[in-house]
Each structure stands twice: as C-alpha cells, then as structure tokens.
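Backbones bend. We report:
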Amino acid sequence: MKRFNGQQTVRYALALLFTVHCSLFTASAQTEGGLIAGAEVEKKVNKQLSVGVEAELRTRNDFKTMERWSLGLGATYKFNKWLKADAGYTLLNTNFREDISYKSSGAYNNWRPSYWGLRHRVHASLTGSYKFQNGLRVSLRERWQYTYRPEKTVERWDFDNACWEDKARSGKAKNQLRSRLQVEYDKKHALLTPYASVELYNTDEVEKIRYTLGADINLTKQHSLDVFYRYENKKNVEAGVYDPDMHYIGVGYKFKF
C-alpha cells in the first residue's frame, strides 16, 4: 500500500475531484456515441479458402476517448454457395472504464481509474445464406467466441485511508454465442450493397443486442468500403456498473487479392 504524502498532491486532488465527477457521472444519460474504423486485407488461396488480417480502432465518450484497438488473423472456407465457416484470433488492447465501489451505507469505498489492458479472443463461425432471384440475400451466422483477460495489477483510491493502493484484477475468461441475422441486396456488378442486421450476444442470458444498417461500396474488384450505423443495446447490466448503450458510426476498408 502506498500512503499519501506531500508529493502526491496532484493525485490526491484528482481523487477529491472525482467525488464531484461521480455524482454527475451517475446522473448522466446511459448512452454514448463512438467511431469504429477498420482495415482488412484478404488473400484468396483457392476457390474455397481465403485468409486475412484486419485492424480496428474504436472510440467512445461521444468520440472523445479511445476505447480500444485490435489486430486479428482469420480464415474462411466455403463449402458451397450457401454455407461457409470461418475461424480466427484477435488481440485486443482495451481502455477499461473507471469503476467506483460503494459501502452498504452508500458512502464511497474505492475508485479505480480507467486503464489499458490486453485481451485475447478466438472465434469460430458457421454461416448459412440463401439468395433470391431478385438479389435479396438472407443469412444466419452462429459464432462462438472465447475471450480471456489476463491478470493485471492496477491502482485504486481508498477513500477511507486517503491513499492509493495496488489491486490485482484476476484473469477472467468468457464464452459467448453470437447469433446474427442479416438481409442484404446483393445485385451483381452494383456499386452499393445495402444491408441490415441484428445480432444477439448470449451467455446464460442475452447480454447485448446489436443493430446495424449500412452498405458495402464496391469501388473496384479489389477495393471496397463499408459504411454503417450501429446501435448496441446493453442488457442485464450489473447494478452500479456504467455500461451505456452505444451509437457507432463506422467505416471500413477492404483489399482483396
């Protein structure tokens, strides 16, 4: 434990100011805006198999705060024109939100500022789709993903003792099933491929529902852009935890060769 002394004046003032900040924080609306920006390179090995690498960054707090960046590797295998499978690994560096704990009396107990930490994620998916003669395509994707957050020691403020202390956040593993239903207008040689989807994140219960409306812009045979709006509706959020619904504006670039 690191006791407060005169050299910690700035940090002590920060902790005191947090008392005011927290009252405003809990009274604020439980929604935020953010940006998702990504880039992907895909290599077609043969008619059935393709591999790729992708990078992504996200912001939150109405575009003012970096939320995370990630790097991923993956592969996709097409069994036929209506069924495909994919699998991959993603390294995520996440800016975890600050957290405040309270005593049973309602008084402040501890405050943990936001911090950066790594997570590891693997996934496997199976997607079935059907394309109608008018160009309308309907697909259903079932994805299992496993995410592991390694143990990390972070600092938190102890209000009782007016001091900073080290706290180890133990490692945490999480399995999720993601179910996505998507409809798109996939017209051959069209510049735009508009789409809409809804996706459920499930553990023991539904944790999040993601709604997306966007369009793929086919610039050339090799280059394309994806622009979209996404709304994430959080479900069954733990009491006292700030995990707002999110409105995202997204753009992604893809290169195929």
